Each structure stands twice: as structure tokens, then as C-alpha cells.
Task: inverse folding
């Protein structure tokens, strides 16, 4: 596992930064997969698709990136519940090794659906390492900025999995809606599905991104019809839309925050390190604790 | 996988029963593990620890049992979030094969913490197979019998994982409390932890089971202090307590239902087969559905 | 009362079936009422309007049917709160006699608005007889199949009464909406109101049922606009729509469960008998119980 | 029915008071019943057990009292769900006649468990007559005075019925607890149960009322342990405790409002008449309304 | 302060009325302000813009009116959070003096956004004076009339402030929506904004009020789309619409209550005086109370 | 106002720090007040009572401190609702000037009861300045660390005001309880009330602090009885307890986070600056916005 971590070359002995983070991708597809969506090798900045938006946040962090566990379900991206459950388990040994290494004071789980988050927090607790994840961080930031948020997401299966994440985080009453822009990933049987990530290049070339246009439409509907006061982004494949979507909404008069998972989770990891907190040891107790609560009320 | 299924010898061609169920254990420990809690081979009845309480429910079912995937975390039982996440992923291929085999119209996931349940329901949906699990079934039956239920459970880590299951199922407001009887599983470093399952033999020999006594105390506290109107059982290691606990509570004047996961999940599987339902295809949509809901409100 | 029960001719001495159920209609109109909606005499199968859909569920049940108490409010169907309150009281002596007779292990209350359900459960508890009802059963099954359900119903007054049932069952947060197809019953002053039940024959003759068409429209709106993941049916007069509505929705791509009250309540009664449960004795205590809870928290 | 109304002798033609109320008891026991709890004939003031506490509220009201329908369940007071369902239906014709008579602009339903309230409101709406009831009024006043209220009540069966009323009124989250003082009514088989109402005379003679003492204990527990900020009274048999309980609590330093059903419902009836409101016609629609809402969201 | 109170000339010695109320405006603008919206001197009836609708409610009250504290934020009406916070503090000394004077048994805070309400209730409690306010009173009356209410309001900033009031009063789940008719007050930079209050004269002259027309449209949308069963009015500048809006809605078939803050708060003040209640002393405790609750649960 | 700000001597032209914060106290008492609780002049570090605990958080911030507005209610600390309402208004001009000055990118409102927070956020929004406050920040951090938190607070009046803050922030369901250690501030009539802040010196001298002992007792009760998984601190007078209380709880085996308002609000301000967010412009709209939402749903 260790060899897969893309670092700046520092080793633990010499690490003196206030923030020492490992960012872990949710899964790694075979390099030559026709369905690959992100680089899993090369300079760490290149492995982080929205690095250019994040440079400001990352500049005082000593950070490494791990490409994630090889996908066991197939050579296409994780999108439905089964695929998320497999990715969750596969990522945990990486979390465990990172936490045990002593190299990091926070682990940032990349990936909109945050596979393995709760188990990773449990592992992190045991090593004093904060762990953050992309759905959770966005939701919690969103609740600080307004009464209700809506999620812009890509596919029916992903959205209903995401729906259950929002319920599990106890924030259903703060979510106005999940809005879909209908960009399910290409996968066997649907090889020709258009790539939302690919449209990023269209924008950079000055062309129109249909995905962005749909996101604008859905975000406006979320604000005007569903009551959203903040927009968050579901699948990580949409995170690059953040500044573009925010600008577009501002241009038409909606002064609404648009969040993305990477920046929120990195910022949350800093906050937890600043406060010297990971999670409550009562919420994530050890296996044979010295103190018991006979009663856990709701 | 298939070879591990313990059957009555029937094959799919000859299967004509109304109910054709596969019961799947959550994990299998090495036969010689010092931490083993259940038989993973031999007659199917023997692999189901509380079979004697379930015979009535099972007698019109053509059922097989699968011992579950080999535990990858170690040779002790699954109890904390990390272990549950690993077991969840490991069980899915078994679910997938069972659903694809055409042999079953329902899969009953055994295990109090129901690892892999949501992903298994997604798989089941794609094959028209109902899937039930032990926390979910107990909660839903409990909500039919009274306003609030309390859970009797074994360990801090397991209970807080279970707490999150109740939240995820959207039933936190119906749960009065989780009450612990403090029987965490033996595991490395805690080899001498007493075995709750082992106490079953004490009872059968006419001796006292400390675990049962604690369960009586906690159930009474749940009723009198927390407002529980129904008692459910958390970890599957407690399921054998059901009739004993119910009798004891009735003897002291508390006419309160005590549920266990196995019977509730088997009964629920029958109900779903009777109604020809699995789950909603809107809640568990396919990867590239023909119909989209642009908006999923909360 | 006893003489009104339509049976198979067995008497209690010879009853050996696992399931021995009495189905009780909510009210009986005069045979010659111009507003009559169902047969209240003749073979038991004929008295159950959707028997053909239920045969599969009923085939291992030893069941009788009672035509319900004579309506005291008038000769038209029960639809508003006043009429439901009168029907509730009138049905209880039938429930009481059935429970006391020892002939049945479950009573299934027929009728979408389930008049008298809570009091009937109290009576059933005292005799060890399970009691189920049509709104309650549908809601609880729906919550097992998806996050939210919507109800297709017939009239404003009925729907607002039904609204209060959903609140009373503590499931308002799981109900997306009640959708009306505008088929209030004919009654004095509105003798010419069209009959939804009458349209069943239209369908059987290969003609179009306007009521079914409206139900399709409202169910689609419930799914696409309100967030329904499961469809339930309100007034019993709509229950016959179940297979037709489900088929129509599937044909247009909405793979959504459509439930009806009769099948859900019969299936629930089996489940309760299977689990040997009725209701909690703490929720439905006797008049002078031996055990008290000084405090009932919320 | 009309003849049973105890009036001041005015007839509708001469009625000019701003407030013209009919107070209706929930049930009438045979005069010679050994279980009788209240006078059902004689001067109207005598029929209202706590008249002396209410004189101030009633002095600008032109009020009559109706002794309620004869109890059909037996000759003991209404206390459990079955008895409440029977009383509910029996009271409606009285409500209907009162509303149709034109003599009253409000009907005040007496009785802690408010049998028939929702149906009575529906009837009242059709005649422009406000209807109030004792559980509902206390809860709504309590929510104006503090965050949470607790109910002091008499019996397990009554309290669990009352529990369902609180849920049905959508105020469960504002109720801290129901606290029981264990005074179930005498009834066949329990002829010697002590009478809480009888203890009123003890107090008047300067003796101690055990029921009051228990109410003090339970109210303190409600405040100190359950979080109650307001105390309400459940069964009407406890309403006379109001001033005594309030005084006792104030004496020991708890400056907490104690409410009773009669005064709150009378005051609410005045408020509704003052505001010229009964209930919403959307919530309580007519049978064949001119306006429809196809969608009733939750 | 005292000199600003417009009275009937009675002094406290001679006050014998059952209801002795002081109505306090939320702020007073300079007489010559181009943005003035109400008279702050002259006969008390003239200072109460909707007096003609309230005469019936006020006729048995010995009431005075106070023009409110001079606005410190500027010479335009209070509309946003900052302005409300300033007005809240400025009104408290008036409340304090009124309560201490012994002249009043209730204070009615005028103004839709009820600045200073909670602090005023605390002051009132200390003097045994009931305090009511316009958002709070409407919400509580609305919850008695139907399941859900919607608010008709004037401006984005006011509405989002009002949104937080509804949350703070714990009634968000009973509010369907806030609907805006887009009439923000004129203020520097927006001197030409049309005046909703000015349109009252249009109506009186038999002309059309665009504001009323928009209110009708939004109220219908609230009923048909949002699920409102009762309509309340947000900013006090809309209160005069009450009878006109109600009539219009009734004319088109929506038999829905329309409430306004003045009448509801006056009626609530009477109710509290009738019941001899102000607020709970547990909810609004003194600074050094004799009794403590170590635990305040939620 | 400006002259009261205690700075490091930098002026806006030279400010280049990433974080430029103004910390504002909630009120300033006369220097010679016998009830003074904190220094309001001198080096900025001295004005921040728990500076030694915060140095780590503050070291990369260019921060100033403002002593707060002079208290208008008297010369004792703010503790009840009336005093908080006065302090809220008095603080806003300071916030307004700070935001308009261009010197700061965040304002941190000091004070447990966060007077003026919502209005200050509105002001901040208009200038692009983030605003955080002590109750709000603790609650939001607590919700990230566990399911439920409890608040340790000083006085009945303060706690019930704080209770309303928790409701207003929409987080009542995440708060287990407020627990009081009974240290109301000295004030006229209660001049001899012990000073919790004064006990800090006791601890530093190696003596016992009764307040800390009570906080330990209440925190344990919160964990063991109320279900708290995280401890927060209410009144700012308790913030210095944070490390001591956390250590004590850890020593006895409760591995539970203890938060304080200063550190959480400073960390939150950094997070908001990092993410370039203040609040949603939809939640805090301008007075005459270009975009309207006719409907604000709940």
C-alpha cells in the first residue's frame, strides 16, 4: 500500500507541518480501462482533478495522495450501493496503515459517496487521526450557511444511495432535495454514456458544457422550487463544476454558496486538527472499554 | 460459494415450495478458532443456533443455509464498524450468486448488525428476490406492536454501530434506548471474556445465566425508565435469550413483546413473498434507468 | 351477530388451521340501498370485492367474513369523520364477540379508513387475537419498501380524515402526499356521483376506466413531484385498482410497488400469528394491571 | 336529547349574549350506579364538578350543560380505548342537534379523553359552531406557556389512550411525559378501587388527599426529571386538583402553570368566537366540495 | 415614556376592567419621515391601522396604545434582522415601565416580526403581566385550525427573518411556506417602492389593490401547491388585507381561515388573563431562583 | 468605537495575513464595577481570558479585540433574556463599523449566549465578512463529533435563554440536555454570589475549584444518564474549564470531547475564510434584491 502513496518526498521523521494529511481516493481503475475517470499515478497535484481550485487550501498542508484500492467490482467507476460497499471495505486497510504510520494527523477520504467513512473514523479514533469525507463535510458546512441545502448529482442509483447517506448523517430535515443532471457513468452495456468529467475540457476550450447547463437549471429549480439556500455537489465527478456553477448562479442573481466535497473535507480536517479533535470516544468506543454506558437513549 | 450452501438436497428444477429461502450467515470463522461462536458446517438446523425456536416458522419453507464469507479481519466475531464494513463487502458475492441462481425467492441475512443489507437489497431487486435483515426486521415489527422499542445489546462498540443503523433506517424517534448487558466478544487481548452464547448451556442444565439476568435487569429499566413498549435484541449472540427473557418479564408482570432477528426476518421474508414485493424500484433504481426523477425531495 | 358470519361450515372444535381469521367489513348498507357498494351476503368470496387478487394469500387460511354492522348514519357509504366515528363504535361488539369466541387467531378489519382499529387492538390483546387494519398495514409495508409513500384516495373529506390517521400512526414524515382522484361517494344530494367501483366492470369489458386513468396521473405526479417511492391506496373502493395501476406504472417505466389494504392486512395478520404477537401489553394495558409505569416519556 | 339540556331558561329567540355555549359531558351513568362519578341532573352548576373554579370564566357566557349520552358499555366510567370509541359515537348526535339548533356559537366537549372531538369539529364546521375539547385545549395552551408539558393522569389504560391523542394532535415532541398517580376507576371486579373525586371532600374537610399527594410527587418528578415546564391534567377526574396542585408546587418553589381541561376549553371557545373561527374548511372539507386539492403534502 | 401612551383618561386607581391592556408599536418614525407608515399620535383608534376590524375585540378592554420607541436605525420601517434587533432592545424599557406601573394585566406587542417578544415575556413574568406578540399568536391559532399554515409576507429579508422566528417557536413542521407578494418598504435608495399600506385607500375608493391581487395569487398557491390549510399574515403592513383576502378566497371556493396578528394577539391576551397565566416560571426563571433544575432535557 | 479596538498596531494598508479577525466582547462593564468579570483594556491577550488555551489557534491570525459595548442594563454581567436583547443591539454598530472598515475578513463574536449573532451575520454578508459565534460554533462542531451533545451552564435564566438558542439553530434533536452547575452571576441583591471565573485562580494555586467539581459531576450525568457524546460549555464564564474538565473526564475513563466557544468560533472563522464563504445570500438577502423566491418552503 505504502508504495502507492504519492508524496513530496518527506518522511515522518522530518515532518513538522501543522497539517499532515493523506488524501485517499475511493477506488483505482486499471490504467487502461476505457471507463477510467481520473489519473491514479503521476504528480500528486495531477491526481487531484480540481487541484487548481484547491491550491489555496492545500498550501500550508504537508499532503500526500493515495490512488485508492483497486476496484474489485469491475473496471468502471463506483456508482451503486453494491459497488460502494465493496469500495468501502477495500479502502479500510489503506486508512488503517496510514493511521498507524504516524505520518498523518488527518485522513481526507475523497469521493462523493464517502465509502467506508464511519469505519474509517473508528480507525482514526484509535490512532488520534481525524478523518473527514465529502458528503459529510459538505452537509455540515451547508448547515452553517443556510437553513436547507440541495445536492446536484449525476444518476438515479447514485442519488438514492446518497439519499441514504443524508438520512444516516441525521440531516434529512436540512436537505431540500437531490437534483439529478442525468450523467450516469459509462459502464458495460452503456459504453457510450457521455462523460461529465470530459466536459471540463470543453469549458476550458471556451465551449459549452451540457452538464454545466443542466446543473444551472437544476440548481435554479432547487432554489426556486425546493427551498434550497445552499447548493452542494454529490458525486465527485461533479466537483469541478463548483466555481463555474457558482459564477453562473451569481450572474443571474442567485447569491448562493456552491460547495464541493474536496474543499470542505480539507477545511474540516484543518478545523479538527486545530481543535485537537477526531470524534467522540463515546460515539466510537474501543472494543473493551473501561467505561460503559448501560443506556444509550435516542 | 455454492458448495458451502447446506441444503435439503433439492435442486432448483424440483423446487415447488411457496417459500424458497437462503439464510446467509454474516461471516465464518476458522473451524478451530478459539473465538468461534457458531457451527459453520453440519446439518443446516445445527448451523442455526436458535433452530428449536424457529422450527414452527421454517416448516413450510424450503430453506438452505450458507455459513457466510470467511472473516478477513481475524478469527474473532465481527463487532465494530471496521469489521462490519469488511463483512458487508464479503457477503455480497454470496448474495449475488444466490439471487442469480434462481433457486430462491428470498434471502434472509443473518446477523444482528445486518452487514451488507442495503447493497443486498439492491442486488435482490435486480433479480426479483426479497432480502430481509435482522435489525431492520425487528425494528419494523416493533413499530407495529408499540410506540417505542429498546434494544438489548452486548457491547459499547456494537451498540454505537447499531445506533447508526437505527438512524439510517429512519426510526430513531421510535427507539427509546439501546441497553447493554456488557458481553463484548472475546478477541485477542481479551481472550478470557465470558461467552454469552456459552451460557445457553448453563440454562439448559438448569443453572443461572448471568447474561439472562442482566438482560432482565436492562429490559425492566428500558420499560420503566426509558419508555420501551417492545424489546428487541441487538447482536445475534443474544437472540437465543428471546423466549427466556420474554418469560421472565411476563412472570414479573411486564406483558411486553420480546423480538429476535431471525424470526422477524424470516416472517418478513414470507410477507414480502406473499405480497410479491421486494423493494421499490424508485428507491433502488437500475444503473441506467429508462425513467428519471430529476428531483428527490426530503 | 354470529349468524351474519359467512363461513366454510367448520366449527371451532374442528378448526386446526394455522391461520383462523375473521375479516370484518366496516359497515353494512341496506340491501336495497341505491348507494350500496358491496355485497353483504352470499358466498364469502363474493363479499370480498377483490377476492380474485387475494386467493393466493387466502388459500392457507381458514377464514370467515362478517358483513359489518348496519350503518346508523344513513344508507350511503362511510366517508367523513362523523360517519367513521359511528362505524368505529358499531364494529366493536363484532370484534369483541369474534375474539371471545375462540374461533379466530386474527381479526382483519376491512375498510381503508380502519374505523375502530385501536379499540379493536385493545380488545384483541385481551383475548390473544391479532388485529390488523388497512391503512396501518399499507403504511408499515410501504415503509419497508422505500423512503416515502403517497396515498391515492377518492375524496376531500375522506383524505383529510386519512391524513389524521397517518399522523396518529406516527408516520407523517414517511408520507409524501395524499393524491385525490375525485370520486366522492354518491349520497343524498349527490345521487348521480359516478361510482369508482362500478368502473371495474368497464375494465373487465375492455373499456376505459376514467378512475384508473386519474389514478395513473396522480400516481405519476406523486412519484415525479412529491417524492413517492411507493403507492398505497386510501379508501377501500380503490383497492381493486391495485394490479391495474401497478401494471400501468410499470409499462411507462415506473417500477414502483402499489399496495392495497386487504392484501397487506391479511399478510400482516399472518406475520403476527407466525411471531405469536398481537400488540404490546404495555401499549395496550389492562384496566387494573399488576405492573405500573409511573412515567410514560415521549 | 334536547330535554336533557340544563339551561337558564332562555330560548334561542332571546339569546343575545356574545358567547352562547353548550357544555356536553362525555357520558351519563345510571343515576343509581355504584360507579357514578358526577351528577347528571340538577342545577347546571352542580353538574360541573369544578364550577367554583370556573365561575369567573363562565360569568359572561350564556351556557347550558348536557349530561352526555347514556353509557352503552356498562355502568362505570369511560377509561379505555373501547369505552372511548363507544362514547365518541354516542355523543355525536348531541353535538349535531346542538349545532343545528342555532342556540350556540360554541360547543365545549367535557372529558379529559375528548371522545368524538374530531368528528364534532367536522359537524361544528358545517354549522359555523366552534368546538373545543379538553386534551386539545390544554396542550395548545401549554405550548404557549413553555417548551414542554407533562400530563398527570390516573390509569395505565387511560394514559396510553391519552398518549395516542397527543401523537394524533401532532404535539408528541412538546410532551415530556405522562405521569400516573394510579387511580383507575372502580369497575366490576375492582369495586373497591379508591375514588379520586371522592377525595375532594377530604380536602374540603381539611384532611389529606392521597391523590393530591401523589400528584405533587409526580409533578415534581415531571419537572425535575422529565423536563416539564407546564403541568396539564389528563382524565377529567383530576381537574379539581388544579388549584390545589398549583398551590402546592408554588409553595415548594416551582412556579409552574397547572392547567385543567374545563377552563382551557372554555377559554379557547371564547377565543374562537372572538376571532370568528371554527376550523379550516380545507382541513374539514364538505362531502362534495366545489374546490379540490389534488395534492395534500405532509 | 409614560407621556407617549395614548389612553382613555382613566388612571390605575380607577381601573376596574377585566382586561387592561397596553398595545405597543414596534417603532416610531419621525412624524415627517417620507417613509412613515402609521400615525404615532392622535386618538388611539387612529394609531391602530386596522381598528375598524378590531373594534369588536376591543370593546370590553380598557386599552391604551404606545407609539413605540423612536427608530434608531433610520427614518424608514424596520424590515431586516439588524433593524429588528435594534427595535427589540428599544422596546424593552417601555415594556418594563408598563409592567411595573400596575396599570395593565397584559401587554400586546404590535408588529409582525415581534421584536423583543421573548425578553418582554421574561419582564412580564416578573410582574404577573401576560405578553403576546403577532407572529407567535397567529402561529398558535393557526395550529388549532388546521394541520399547516402559510404566511403571506412582503419582502425577502423580512421573510427570512420571519422564517427564523417560526423555527425559534418550534413550529417549522407546521408551516407549509412563506409566500411573498414583493412589497419591500421604501427606504433610502429605494424611495419609490410602492406602498402596500397606501393601497388600502385604493380599495376603499373601489379601485383595485395590486397587493391584494398578489396576496390572492400567493394564498391560492399556498393552498393548492404547498399544503396550507390556514393563511397567516407576516409583516404588520399586510394585516389590513385580512378580511379582503378571506372574502376573496371564500368567493372562489377556498373556505380557509385568514388570520392577522393584531386580532390573534389581543384574543390571546384575553385568554391568558382569563386563565390567569403569563408564562411558565420554569421556562422564564428569575435570576437567583430558589428551585433549580440541574437538568434541562430536550 | 474604533479607538477601543486593541490591536497589534498594524493598519489596513499593511495587512496581508490570510486571517484578519476582530474578536468582539458582548458587553463592557464599568472598570470599577464590583461585578466586573473580565478586563476590558490592556494587552489584547489579557482581554481574552482563556488566551493561553487559544495561542495555538491564534498564532497565524492577525487579530484585534474589541471590549464590547458598554452595558446599558447595569453594572453586572449579561445573563437573562432582557439583558441579552439589550447587548445584542448595542453590539451591532461595532460589527457594522468593523465590517465596513475593510480591516477584517472575519468577526468572532465572543460570549456564550452570542447576542446579536443573526443580525451580525446579515451585516457581515453585506460586506463579505464571515461572522461566527460561540453557541452556534460549539453546536456545529459537536454534531460533527457525535450524535448528541450536552451543555454545561451556570444559571437557570441563562440556560433557558440558551435552550431557545438551540431550538432557534434547529439543533434541539441533537442536544441531550443542558446541565447546570448553579453559578449565577453576582448582581444587585445577590452581591455575594460566588464567582466561577474567580475559581480559576484557585486551580492555578493547586486548590480545588468547586465549580470544576460540579462540572465534572454534571458532565458525567450528561454522559451516563442523558446520552451526551460531546460536552459543550454554555456561558463564556465556563470556557476556562475546558481543558480541566476534559482531563478530569478522561482520567475517569470518559474519552469525550469537551468544547468551548472561543476555540470553536475561531476555528470556524478560519474554515469560512478558507472556503471563501460567509452565509447564503438567499438566507440573508439584501433589502431590495434582484432575485425573489415567491415561495420559501419548510
Result:
Amino acid at each position: 500500500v505504502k508504495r502507492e502513496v504519492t508524496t513530496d518526498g518527506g518522511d515522518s521523521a522530518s515532518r513538522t507541518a501543522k497539517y499532515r494529511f493523506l488524501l485517499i481516493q475511493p477506488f483505482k481503475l486499471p490504467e487502461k480501462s476505457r471507463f477510467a475517470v481520473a489519473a491514479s499515478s503521476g504528480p500528486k497535484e495531477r491526481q487531484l482533478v480540481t487541484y487548481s481550485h484547491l491550491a489555496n487550501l492545500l498550501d500550508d498542508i504537508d499532503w500526500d495522495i493515495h490512488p485508492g484500492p483497486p476496484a474489485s467490482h469491475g473496471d468502471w467507476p463506483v456508482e451503486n450501493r453494491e459497488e460502494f460497499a465493496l469500495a468501502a471495505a477495500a479502502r479500510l486497510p489503506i486508512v488503517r496503515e496510514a493511521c498507524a504510520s504516524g505520518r498523518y494527523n488527518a485522513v481526507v477520504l475523497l469521493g462523493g459517496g464517502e465509502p467506508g467513512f464511519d469505519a474509517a473514523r473508528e480507525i482514526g479514533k484509535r490512532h488520534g487521526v481525524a478523518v473527514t469525507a465529502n458528503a459529510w463535510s459538505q452537509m455540515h458546512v451547508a448547515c452553517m450557511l443556510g437553513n436547507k441545502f440541495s445536492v446536484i448529482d449525476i444518476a438515479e442509483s447514485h442519488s438514492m444511495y446518497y439519499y441514504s447517506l443524508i438520512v444516516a448523517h441525521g440531516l434529512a430535515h436540512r436537505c431540500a432535495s437531490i437534483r439529478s443532471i442525468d450523467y450516469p457513468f459509462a459502464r458495460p452495456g452503456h459504453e457510450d454514456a457521455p462523460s461529465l468529467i470530459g466536459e471540463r475540457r470543453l469549458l476550458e476550450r471556451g465551449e459549452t458544457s451540457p452538464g454545466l447547463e443542466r446543473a444551472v437549471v437544476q440548481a435554479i429549480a432547487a432554489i426556486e422550487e425546493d427551498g434550497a439556500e445552499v447548493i452542494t455537489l454529490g458525486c465527485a465527478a461533479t466537483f469541478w463544476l463548483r466555481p463555474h456553477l457558482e459564477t453562473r448562479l451569481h450572474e443571474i442573481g442567485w447569491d448562493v454558496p456552491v460547495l464541493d466535497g474536496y474543499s470542505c473535507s480539507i477545511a474540516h480536517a484543518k478545523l479538527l486538527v486545530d481543535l485537537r479533535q477526531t470524534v467522540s470516544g463515546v460515539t466510537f468506543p474501543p472494543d473493551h472499554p473501561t467505561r460503559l454506558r448501560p443506556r444509550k437513549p435516542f
In short: Residues 81-101 of chain A form the longest helix (21 residues).
